[in-house]
Amino acid sequence: MPYVDLYSRDDYASIYYTTSSIYDNVGGFDPEKPTLMILHPVLLDTTWLENQLGDPRLYQHYNIIAFDMRSMGQSNCKPSEKHDAWVDAADLGLCCQMLHLPPCHVFALEAISVNAALRFALLFPEMCLSLALCNIPSPVEPRWTYSALEGFMNSWAFAEDLDGLEHAMSEAMTLLLGQNCDSDLKDLVVAHWEKTLPPTRRQCFVETLGVILNRSPLEPEAYEEITQPVLIIHGERNELSPQKYAETLSKHLKNAGNEPILYPVKGAGSFLSIIPGSASIANQVLVKFLSRLPLSRSDIVPPKRSIYERMKIALDRLAYLVPGKDVNRDLDPTSPLSYSCLSDEVVKLQMDILDRANRGRLSAFNPLGPDGRPLRKLSDSRVDHWFQSGKDGLSVSEGVFVSPERGKSETLKSSRSEREDKTSIKTPIAAKSDKYYVKPSAIREPQPHLNGRALIH
């Protein structure tokens, strides 16, 4: 995959991307087609966008580009305690300028991508033609999911064996995709996590979860600054992020072009973009929404302003949008970390967590085999265990599991008894007692007697 190097005094990142062109680069874009930027779901990457990149309704009419967000997928970066949604938006702005991308439509999937897309439209309005947002998250993380995600972070990042890691990932799947998630899909997602976010890469995992847990809502005045046309697609049965958050967002976007459109997908939940049926419906709604907008070209030309000048404008605009954001001369406009809006208290907490994750990271448990593939499928593991919950959420074990030492001793005992049964001699009925059999060795043949005297030879 091609990538873009972002480097500055206090930060570096390699942002990988993929496109719909033949040679997987921006130079192969058709200038007659509009450009569509797709942002992948949380904890996944661009390899999970096959339902979008492989849909002829999209790739035949649009030039598609998709980025791996920093700390996810193949992208890598310097671990930072300042990472938030504003930093992701700055990454996208820098990548668009360095690749000389034309203004594009943005299709954002799930929590982190939705927050990054909204901020990208605020900081770089001329680069964003429209917004299509899929599954709107809550403005702040609810307390119950905060506790659950915090528990997953500890049990996942610091797992010491395969059973513990699979248990943490299985519980995360239940939280994100629900109890009725398809077992094959579970196997694929868990295998992907084991390859991209194992305990040996727990700094990336902790940093990504920090972006989710430490998010903060936009100011009401900031929502009014979004003037692009907006489409909101939301799963009707999304238990993690109910539809009320999508309805609230559509009311906040008062100045969006042509009034925001809210489309609920019947029967769909969270992560609907990776489920073929729900993803096809979302793609169809997206195509109809984009067909109503004016056509735009995709000419690859250098931007009129230098990257430093444009990023300085974005930094000044951030100070206007976020009250209390101090933009001083020490901040480097070309550094994405300069756009972070986390408080000092949260930054210190994140620093402590990242330092803890870094200790012993290289010697942490690795769930991959020598060939770089997972050791087993999740469905091949022991499923009838007391901590594996069923579809009803209850964890009840119906089987009896014996420790390896006890099982070995029981096997030896049974094999010894079978061997004795084969070598034993059947005894007469008279030699049997009511309960026990008399051993054949204990029965002696009678000695011949003569008038009470033993016969002497």
TrEMBL record:
Q: Where is this region: Disordered?
A: 405-428
Q: Which UniProt keywords apply?
A: Hydrolase
Stretches assigned to coiled coil: none
**Do you know which InterPro entries this protein is assigned to?**
AB_hydrolase_fold
The record's GO molecular-function terms, alphabetically, read:
hydrolase activity
Q: Answer yes or no on keyword Hydrolase.
A: yes
Alphabetized Gene3D superfamilies for the sequence: alpha/beta hydrolase (3.40.50.1820)
- Biased composition range(s): Basic and acidic residues: 405-424
Protein name per the record: Alpha/beta-hydrolase
Q: Which organism is it from?
A: Coprinopsis marcescibilis
